[in-house]
Specification:
Elements: H1 13-27, H2 34-41, H3 45-57, E1 61-62, E2 71-72, H4 74-83, H5 86-103, E3 106-113, E4 116-123, E5 139-141, H6 146-151, H7 157-164, H8 180-193, E6 196-199, E7 206-214, E8 220-229, H9 238-255
Helix pairs in contact: 1-3, 2-3, 4-5, 5-9, 7-8
Length: 258
């Protein structure tokens, strides 16, 4: 082929600038204001706004609740689901902030990787003398954690046996679910209730609640939930906490539609 190679072809300036904006928002742990993007790009504010707004209209960017700053949007989330996981926490983080503020407990966002839960992001409450540590970047078992059971919510006994085998499941505490048959019943209850509970099944003194996050096709793709010291999250408090966790999951589900 004659002529210049593709590497010598001049870049399309507007596309280049739009991608620079997307990269800047993806790299930030917090929502990015238009002013910061304007400073970064070194061009006039109105041009930056038009570029960012185009990305927002295509849902690569979004506004967090009650703010005009920018975070990654659901289109970026969908791409990340296919090609990576690093932007997931950025997209969902403001939901964790709201959930932690409402319940005063550590919140987590997780996905399933093979036979384990993988924690993508967390938010720790301010002002609590004792709280559950954040687990971002860590793994946990599927069968005895709230997040794991939320991620397995749609699995029946056959699917669980294919995934986990038919041998007794590893025991961590006296409350740990020990069999696939029992876990299948638990998953059925999670489907009915819309949330899962870990009542000291993985760590004796920690009680957790999680709800499944579903993509626009209804498939469970992630989970959101809270972890609390057992002494603070009493049995009588589970219903209220579960309602808030489910509301958060539903808000995330709604944001992914379209």
């Amino acid at each position: 082929m004659s002529g210049k190679s593709v590497h010598d072809t001049p870049a399309i300036q507007s596309l280049d600038r739009g991608l620079a904006i997307l990269e800047a928002v993806a790299a930030s742990a917090r929502p990015v204001p238009l002013r910061q993007l304007t400073d970064l790009m070194g061009i006039d504010r109105s041009s930056v706004f038009r570029l960012a707004n185009t990305l927002r209209q295509r849902r690569f960017l979004a506004h967090p609740k009650d703010s005009k700053d920018y975070i990654l949007g659901p289109t970026a989330w969908r791409l990340s689901r296919r090609y990576g996981r690093t932007v997931l926490g950025t997209f969902f983080h403001h939901y964790l902030q709201d959930l932690t503020q409402t319940l005063g407990e550590t919140s987590h966002f997780a996905i399933r990787e093979g036979l384990e839960v993988f924690f993508i992001d967390h938010q720790i409450p301010a002002g609590q003398v004792v709280s559950v540590a954040g687990q971002t970047g860590e793994y946990a078992p599927l069968h005895c954690t709230a997040h794991g059971k939320a991620l397995l919510a749609d699995s029946d006994a056959a699917a669980l046996a294919d995934l986990l085998g038919r041998e007794p499941l590893q025991v961590y505490t006296r409350r740990t679910v020990k069999s696939v048959t029992r876990l299948a019943r638990v998953c059925a209850q999670v489907r009915a209730d819309g949330f899962a509970v870990d009542d000291g099944e993985y760590i004796e003194e920690v009680r957790c609640i999680a709800a499944p996050i579903r993509d626009p096709h209804g498939e469970v793709v992630a989970s959101v939930g809270i972890s609390s010291p057992v002494r603070r999250l009493q049995i009588r408090d589970i219903s209220r906490a579960a309602t808030e966790v489910k509301k958060t999951a539903e808000a995330i589900n709604a944001s992914l539609v379209g």
